[in-house]
Amino acid sequence: MEINTKLLISVTCTSFFTFQLLFYFVSYWFSAKVSPGFNSLSFKKKIEWNSRVVSTCHSLVVGIFGLYIFLFDEATKADPLWGGPSLANVNIAIASGYLISDLSIIILYWKVIGDKFFIMHHCASLYAYYLVLKNGVLAYIGNFRLLAELSSPFVNQRWFFEALKYPKFSKAIVINGILMTVVFFIVRIASMLPHYGFMYSVYGTEPYIRLGVLIQLSWVISCVVLDVMNVMWMIKISKGCIKVISHIRQEKAKNSLQNGKLD
């Protein structure tokens, strides 16, 4: 299958340098302008802040672009396994550039933002995307998996609120927390059913067999590794959400009791 390799390499490199620029220069300037509390943060907090600003930018770009491709890119939907070069490949190349950029930042500032689960997540994703771009297969699946990034802005916003010392049960944190839980569940957990259902539906078909054992196994293993981490994160997020809802109910009950006494 003919793939515009030079274009994909160019997109990946451009993505890498763009996100590096955002981390080392743009985020410092932009964050100081929009959030007065940024300047009072410690050096370590600023590093993670900038990392999450870049993460949010990446998530919005590939998430929204991915949603458009998922809904309207007929070239990708026509043949999910062997679809020709399409916008999905470009989106995956953008994501690959970001992952390489973020890996370099995590390694360079390991003592500040080092996380073995993020290393596993990035490496598994990069390996899968490398196979997609190199062989020109499964672009539809790769793009579908990128829809999971739509949850990241809410996760990052939660951290921003905490860094700025917003009250734990403030309205902004509660609303963001509920949205984070709902969106995370939809794009990372609920999406597993159609994904693995599709995988089962094509198993044993001629297009699936043509993928070869390496790509077949890589498809399954990389997705399982990522989804295990997604389930772990979902459990953690759900516990936090339940805790917040329980606190709100207790506060309402307490207020109702106090109002009853006043009456």
UniProtKB/TrEMBL annotation:
Gene this chain is encoded by: TLCD4
Protease keyword on record: no
Membrane topology listed for this record: Multi-pass membrane protein
Any one biological process term the GO annotation gives: lipid homeostasis
Record keyword Transmembrane helix present: yes
Domain TLC: 44-246
Transmembrane spans: 6-32, 53-72, 92-110, 173-193, 213-235
Listed name of the protein: TLC domain containing 4
Domain of life (superkingdom): Eukaryota
Alphabetical list of Pfam families matching this protein: TRAM_LAG1_CLN8
Matching PANTHER family: CT120 PROTEIN, TLC DOMAIN-CONTAINING PROTEIN 4
Compartments where located: Membrane
CC terms in the record's Gene Ontology section: endoplasmic reticulum; membrane
InterPro entries recorded: TLC-dom (IPR006634), TLCD (IPR050846)
Keywords in alphabetical order: Membrane, Transmembrane, Transmembrane helix
